[in-house]
Amino acid sequence: MARRSRVSSASLAREVPMRPLKLAVPNKGRLSDDTLAILRRAGIHLRGSSERRLFASALDGRIQVLFLRAHDIPAFVADGAVDAGITGLDVTRESGLELDVRTDLGFGKCRLVVAVPEASDWRTPDDLPDGVRLATSFPHLTRSYFEARDKDVRIIPVSGACEVTPTLGVADAITDLTSTGSTLVMNHLREVGTIETSTCHLVTAPQVDEAVREDLERLVFALESVIGARDQRYLLADLPRSALSEVQAFLPGLGGPTVVDIAGDPDSVAIQVVVQEDHIFDAVHRLREIGGRGILVVPIDRMVA
After folding, report:
1. What is the pLDDT of residues 257-305, one digit of tens each?
2. Strand pairing report for 154-157 and 173-178
């Protein structure tokens, strides 16, 4: 009689074939550079990428990266072609698609603004009359913004060079993205209102494939640990043991400084502490005043509090 083997549900789960987590990222420009930088800091190094890249892989194939236009990424995520995407919150909201906004990555900050010709008498968005022609690459957000103000505006969709449309007589005003406002000034335009502020976010579909859920959560955790390390520095120094209480008062760190005895020098200790970057200048100065030496300030790639 053949022996009946007993297979646990855990063993069966391990036998279920997994597939790579598919992640869409911007294919060019500053958003692409910043995205690749934060992935590297999270320990995700891409293989097979080049200047004309379309695909790359990471973590021995567990993550497959697709390089797409930032505006196309929400649709690819919503359709299930990819599991997650990194793109601007502005294009995600403009898409009108049902997506989960998981993590604010903090870079790519810009504003979607209402801008009018310098010579115009309009000072606020409410000054724009009904029927005004608005050129924009964000028709959905623009229409919603003015509908909330009971304004009946005429939307003129454009894919680029939005700033020149008032000069050409194509539009009376525009809504467009800006970081510093310099391009608007160069084209004799003036901001009169902000529709919304945007940064890059990690977005996913509401329903995540169970085959990649674990790797997705690990990706979120890794990115959040990089974000948590921003504006933080690791400070190390040797100092007199008698000064330890004073150091604990002005360098509390996450849970107080780590204190280590120094072999052969019972009167001194070594401290290690995480310090906000904008406190480093004064912290180093005070450590020197109380006898600190061998002071090191080290950047932090990731931090898990």
Report:
1. 899 999 989 999 999 999 999 999 999 999 999 999 999 999 999 988 7
2. unpaired
Mean of all residue pLDDT scores within the chain: 89
Pairing of strands 55-58, 63-68: antiparallel
**4 lies in some domain:** no
- Ranges assigned E (strand) in the chain: 21-26, 55-58, 63-68, 84-88, 100-104, 110-117, 133-136, 154-157, 173-178, 189-198, 200-204, 232-240, 258-262, 265-276, 293-299
32 in a structural domain: yes
pTM of the complete model: 0.83
- 149 with 222, same domain: the answer is no
> Do residues 94 and 43 both lie within one domain?
yes
Q: Which amino acid is at 300?
A: I
Crossing angle of helices 29-41 and 213-229, in 10° steps, is 100
Q: Is 100 exposed, middle or buried (0-12, 13-18, 19+ CB in 10 A)?
A: middle
Beta partners for residue 87, in sequence order: 201
DSSP 199: -
Q: Letter for the amino acid at 108?
A: G
Range of 60's domain?
Answer: 14-108+200-228
Best CA proximity match to 123, nearest among 193, 184, 186: 193
What mean pLDDT is predicted for residues 162-173? 93
Report residue 90 as tokens. Answer: 């502005």
Select from 177, 211, 171 the least CA-distant residue to 83: 211
258-262: strand order across its sheet? 258-262, 265-276, 232-240, 293-299
Tokens of 295: 């002071």
pLDDT at 51 over 80: no
> Taking 90 as the threshold, does the pLDDT of residue 5 lie above it?
no
